[in-house]
Amino acid sequence: MVPSPSTSAPAETCGPVLPGSVCAVKLRCVFLLKCVSRRVCVCVCPVSYVERGRQHRWRCAQVTFTCPTEASCQRWVAGIRELLAANASRPRRLLVYINPYGGKKQGKRIYEQKVAPLFARAGVSTHVIVTEYANHARDHLRTEAELKQFDGVVCVGGDGMFSEIIHGLIWRTQVDGSVDPGCPDETLSPCSLRVGIIPAGSTDCICFATVGTNDPVTSALHIIVGDSQAMDVCSIHHNNTFLRYSVSLLGYGFYGDVLTDSERKRWMGPARYDLSGLKMFLTHHYYEGTVSYLPARGILGTPRDGARCRSGCVVCQHNGQLLSEKAERYETENDGEWRTIRGKFLAINAASMSCACPRSPKGLSPAAHLADGTTDLILVRKCSRFNFLRHLLRHTSKDDQFDLTFVEVHRVRRFRFTPRHCQSDSDLELDLRENNKGQIFSQICTDHPACGCAPAYSSWNCDGEILTHTAIDVRVHCQLIKLFARGIEELESGLCVTVT
Ligand SMILES: Nc1ncnc2c1ncn2[C@@H]1O[C@H](COP(=O)(O)OP(=O)(O)OP(=O)(O)O)[C@@H](O)[C@H]1O
Ligand SMILES: CCCCCCCCCCCCC/C=C/[C@@H](O)[C@H](CO)NC(=O)CCCCC
Ligand SMILES: [Ca+2]
Question: Which first-to-last residue range defines the signal peptide (predicted)?
Fold first, then answer.
């Protein structure tokens, strides 16, 4: 047995190790290889690999191989380097944007201390831009960035920063491919560059829902090993004018009001959402309007089937293929099947993914899928404070948040919302006939906010940004973007099963 080198990791002999043995499992995850020293007849070679920890965390571990001769050590090093070079999914050059003001303002420190050293060890080169103002990253990606030089884009920040990045990338991809990004009926071209998220925000919902944790080291390792996870994107239009894209939550009513209120408290950091959440829960505003939607037909999965979207999800694979092959026919077949619901709502939420985050580990729609071409439209009708609290608390417990008489959920491909004050004259007349005097009074009070009555309209929270319009048309674009992630893994604890 060769003596251990003076590193913290245990030594293993290279000679008898054959592919298929334990070391070969680890070698699949190798991202660093360097022959560091030579002892008398012994070559020492530390190899870094990924080790799974608890709660979906990944860590970089090291194993030290020793070889009896320098020649055999070099053969091993060359062999492993060749394998790594042949792996086309691993990025070699990345464009990194850091928001220094997201979350607890730790983005720069997190990147420099936790991520940059890992990229350097893995031989990934980077071009780093620390943003100087909001939309800096978006505008740079739209017009200036030389994207051909890079294998991916990395976003250091929260959901808002990620939103900037995808707005820049999607726009650029459409313009480069001569597609009109402003038209709601256009089939958008998918972005070829993958996006990596190093979480440094307040909610980090997109990172959490695609990786299973909001841990910067784990995300860096997913980028290094070259993971890929497709993701749906919703385009949002108002009167045929493009407003924004959304990948996680589009929320009117409760979540719109929480966001509006919390923006005034940005100085508080992530705690602003707790305070505004409590305030808006107590305020208990409801809003009137009309929701029309195109139900998703012929696809696998329903919002209440309990099937979670996990790594290698068959629902996403099946539906993704169905939509890409039959997109045209599918849209035409479904035209005319629009359904309409008119009512008073405490919240209207569209979750294009589970929206799991540390505040709500299973998310707003636990069975929503990352890449199935649909969004889960959740309507929470006017109810008592007590009942609304029951619904909200179910975001944090195991109970079904949709198993309540005042909540309904529909898996949809497209939906529209019109607040009551924007409805056409004929619609309003219909409402006046249907409704009683008290409701007419609430409409009148819209125009007289000084009287202290409830406001008639809320705002849309679009992935943490406020939309400028309330009447919107939302369409899901199946698998428009790709992330350096693999979806949440469901593994038996302690098992390493990545041998492929
Ligand atoms: N240099 C900058 N100065 C000011 N604002 C910036 C800068 N760079 C980016 N931004 C903006 O900061 C906003 C918030 O950033 P980010 O999403 O990173 O953090 P957060 O809002 O705290 O987290 P989360 O979105 O996860 O709740 C984004 O909308 C982004 O456009
Ligand atoms: C009385 C209180 C009961 C407690 C109920 C807790 C429920 C928590 C659900 C959290 C759901 C977050 C959905 C994610 C939305 C993100 O796209 C967005 C951008 O980061 N974050 C917010 O809008 C931030 C929204 C934060 C809302 C609290
Ligand atoms: Ca989806």
Answer: none
**99 CB less than 6 Å from ligand 1?**
yes
| Secondary structure (3-state) at 268 | helix
Is the CB of 103 inside a 6 Å radius of any atom of ligand 1? yes
**Percent of all residues in the chain with a pLDDT value above 90, rounded to a whole number:** 66
At 336-356, the pLDDT tens digits run: 689 999 999 999 999 999 999
From ligand 1's centre to the CA of 200, what distance in Å? 9
Cα angle 459-463-466, degrees, rounded to a multiple of 5 = 30
Residue 322 has pLDDT above 60, yes or no: yes
One of 2.60.200.40, 3.60.15.10, 3.30.390.30, 2.60.40.10 is the CATH number of 107-483, namely: 2.60.200.40
Q: Looking at the annotation, which residues are catalytic?
A: 159
Q: What is the pLDDT of residues 69-100, one digit of tens each?
A: 888 888 888 888 898 889 999 999 999 999 99
Annotated domain spans of the chain: 11-86, 107-483
